[in-house]
Design goal:
The protein is an alpha/beta fold. The chain contains 20 helices and seven strands. The chain has helices at about 10-20, 35-45, 60-70, 105-110, 125-135, 145-155, 170-175, 180-195, 210-220, 230-235, 255-260, 260-275, 280-290, 300-310, 320-330, 340-350, 355, 365-370, 375-380, 390-395, and strands spanning about 1-5, 20-25, 50-55, 75, 85-90, 95-100, 115-120. A seven-stranded mixed sheet has the order 1-7-6-5-2-3-4, sandwiched between helices. Helix 1 runs parallel beside helix 2, helix 3 packs antiparallel against helix 6 (about 145-155) and helix 13 (about 280-290) packs across helix 14. Residues about 155-160 and about 385-395 have low confidence and may be disordered.
Length: about 400
Amino acid sequence: MLINSKNIVVRFKENLRWATRLDLVSAWATEHKGLSILEEEYNKQALQVRAIIGLWNHLTEPEALRRLNQLGELRLAKDRHFHPKVYLFTGQGRACAWVGSANFTAGGFQNNEEAIFESEDTHSVSAWFDILWNKCGHLEQDTIDSYKDDYEKTRKYARVKPKNGKTKPIELLEGVKDWGSYVNAVRECDIWWSNRSNFSVLGESDSWLHTIDILHDIIARKNLKTLEDSEKRRVLGLSLDSWALLGKMRQSSMGTVFGINADNIQRILRKVATAENDAFPDLAFISYEEIRKFSGIGQGIATRLLSLARPDRFVSVNGGSLKFLARFAGLKPSTLGKPDNYRKLLEYAYDQSWFQASEPKHGFEASIWRMRIALLDCFVYSHKNKSSNDHSLQQ
């Protein structure tokens, strides 16, 4: 059978439910929904995992390697010509193999147009995997840490000179009239940021899309109190680079969010994340006011957390986005910090035809649709708008 972008995630989960072993080969790996599903199934059953991942050009994320290594055995390929995408499911007297175009990445499983052929004739695939597995050799203890150092240096200093995308993001947003023009504006905004910074809108890493997707998964699936320190820093934008998109909080907010208030904050975020669409907009306003009542929780923290919990319903407001968000909704920047005006901002966004569009069937557009309000940040964020008292909004 042929698997495409519309059903790859669903079929992946279906196969993992009966499999007792997954052998995985991918040119690159990033954190994405497929990796989270693999972790969930691993925790439910005795699932053996062997993964061979390529490292060429530092497109593979170190955190994805760490998570895969915790699930089973991991081996790495550094050759620039390493480019296979193969998945072999085995167990309970069954076997099937996937061979196709999809890397084990956000692009391969969520955003790109991909094609995979699934077959129950797995003998040749199994033999090929065993040869490749032995060829790659065992993973040394410090390999992931060493790769992480190289990865961070590469991402930090990689610069691309501006080429296309001359229209400013806020002007792109102001030209949006319907869902099709919204998608086109997001693509143009991706070009604009890609040519001027170390992050993008739609990239498989270091992007708004990736940041929202991964942090939403953490907020919706994990317990705030038991998060690892690195996950807490990501949630609050305290980590380097793109994790600070949607607003970077102060260090003191670690205790505010993950300390005494954690259970009540999580209750609000989970309610928002699991609510039916008809619960909005009322639930949006109620949740925003509830979370603002906790000591130390200002508009920046509140809107960032809510945007990550429900990116189709909330947008983050901070010093970098305040000016153009107000311009977008026809409000005064000096008044956007008031709860009533945040309500007006959301009401204005919900009233747009692009917001009211039905969920698309195409995998990429569906991903964008599910975070269409939070993605307003890519149109309104500006380094120039960040003021010296930026944290006054965030705390």
